[in-house]
């Protein structure tokens, strides 16, 4: 449940971060992006998160993997899955928030969103196996 | 009598509604605010040829050119003027020496509108046409010229200014579709054209 919450919370935070760029002003008193920019960036971001969250939610209902023979490592498995997921989502949010810290000439949220989506693909190895195992394993009971 | 009138009103109402809507729509479409986007502006610069004169004297107080210099001269003026606004013509031939051709529309690239220009614009225009100062603006011109040689000789330049906007972290300009005053941008170009026609006429070697 905690892992699912991490994914959903990260999705909500990513939407809030992108939305915040529409309403906040730069130190020079200019809006970061137009609502039209937000309307283009958000669907791409939702598509990126959707691939992961759809898997997580689907595994709540369908558990295709058999449980491990030994229950000894269960605690570690959870912490590994949580750490990898938290790192993955923190990295994506950090990249999305990068526009706030960029200098005036380097601000480009569209490019930052592209970087975040690229990072999602490259960091998939961190979250896909552990989350698939964690959510997709049949309970031994 | 009163009954006769009220009896007739319901029969007419179905036509009155759509008719009023149509009239309102036409009025809105033809209103000056709606026409702001597509407005065209013109600039006229009279000139005469070196071989023409009044009696044996050359025409004074007017731009004097050789017949074969007309195209290169007006092209030079146009290029110098738009370069003064930090713009360039994107669809020009690669050969820099080739002049811009008459009766062909050239589009400049989009140049950011400076804060000073934005302030001047807002000072010159009322609240309905003012621009939100928390956004960034860019402007572009579509230009074409003709050389009229029938009765009077003059360069006729058509100017179509276009406004774009974006946020500080947006990657691309978007066309500004709300109402704005194209007069301001056309006036900037008109003033620059006027001074460049004068300046380049002085630079030009004196006609023999």
Polypeptide structure, described:
The complex is a heterodimer of chains A (141) and B (208). Chain A is mainly alpha-helical and 141 residues long. Chain A has one domain (2-136). Chain A has helices spanning 2-23, 35-61, 74-96, 98-101, 109-122, 124-136. In chain A, helix 1 packs antiparallel against helix 2, helix 1 (2-23) runs parallel beside helix 3 and helix 3 (74-96) crosses helix 6 (124-136). The two termini of chain A are 18 Å apart. Chain B is α+β, with helices and mostly antiparallel strands. Chain B has two domains: 1-30, no CATH class; 39-203. Helices cover 38% and strands 23% of the residues of chain B. Chain B has helices at 2-30, 32-35, 70-84, 115-124, 182-203, and strands at 41-49, 53-54, 57-58, 63-65, 106-107, 111-112, 136-148, 154-166, 174-175. In chain B, strands 1, 4, 5, 6, 7, 8 and 9 form a seven-stranded mixed β-sheet that branches. The interface between A and B is medium-sized, with 20 and 13 residues.
- Number of domain modules of chain A: 1
What coarse outline of chain B follows from CA principal-axis ratios? globular
Q: pLDDT average of chain B, as an integer? A: 80
Radius of gyration of chain A: 18 Å
SSE pattern of chain A, N- to C-terminal = HHHHHH
Q: Helicity of chain A, in percent?
A: over 70%
What structural category arises from helix and sheet content of chain A? mainly alpha
Number of domains of chain B: 2
**Beta-strand content of chain A:** under 5%
Q: Number of DSSP strands of chain A?
A: 0
Number of strands of chain B: 9
Describe the global form of chain A. elongated
Largest sheet of chain B: 7 strands, mixed
Question: Could you tell me the strand content of chain B as a percent range?
Answer: 15-25%
């Amino acid at each position: 449940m905690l892992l699912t919450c991490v994914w959903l919370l990260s999705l909500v935070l990513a939407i809030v971060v992108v939305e915040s760029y529409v309403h906040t002003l730069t130190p020079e008193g200019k809006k970061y992006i137009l609502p039209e920019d937000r309307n283009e960036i958000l669907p791409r971001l939702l598509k990126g998160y959707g691939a992961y969250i759809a898997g997580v939610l689907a595994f709540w209902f369908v558990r295709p993997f058999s449980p491990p023979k030994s229950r000894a490592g269960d605690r570690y498995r959870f912490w590994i899955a949580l750490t990898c997921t938290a790192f993955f989502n923190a990295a994506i949010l950090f990249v999305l928030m990068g526009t706030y810290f960029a200098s005036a000439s380097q601000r480009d949220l569209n490019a930052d969103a592209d970087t975040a989506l690229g990072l999602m693909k490259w960091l998939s190895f961190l979250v896909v196996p552990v989350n698939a195992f964690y959510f997709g394993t049949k309970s031994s009971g | 009598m009163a009954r006769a009138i009220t009896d007739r009103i319901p029969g007419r109402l179905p036509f009155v509604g759509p008719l009023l809507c149509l009239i309102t729509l036409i009025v809105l479409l033809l209103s000056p605010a709606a026409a702001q986007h597509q407005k065209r502006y013109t600039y006229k610069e009279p000139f005469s040829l070196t071989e023409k004169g009044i009696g044996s004297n050359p025409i004074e107080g007017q731009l004097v050119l050789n017949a074969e210099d007309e195209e290169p001269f007006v092209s030079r003026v146009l290029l110098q003027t738009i370069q003064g606004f930090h713009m360039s013509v994107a669809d020009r031939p690669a050969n820099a020496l080739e002049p811009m051709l008459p009766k062909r529309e050239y589009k400049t690239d989009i140049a950011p509108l400076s804060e000073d220009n934005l302030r001047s614009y807002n000072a010159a225009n009322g609240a309905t046409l003012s621009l939100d100062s928390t956004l960034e603006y860019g402007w572009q011109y579509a230009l074409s010229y003709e050389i009229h040689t029938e009765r009077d000789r003059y360069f006729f330049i058509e100017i179509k200014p276009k406004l774009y906007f974006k946020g500080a972290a947006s990657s691309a300009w978007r066309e500004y579709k709300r109402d704005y005053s194209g007069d301001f941008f056309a006036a900037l170009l008109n003033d620059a054209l006027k001074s460049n026609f004068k300046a380049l006429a002085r630079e030009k070697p004196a006609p023999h």
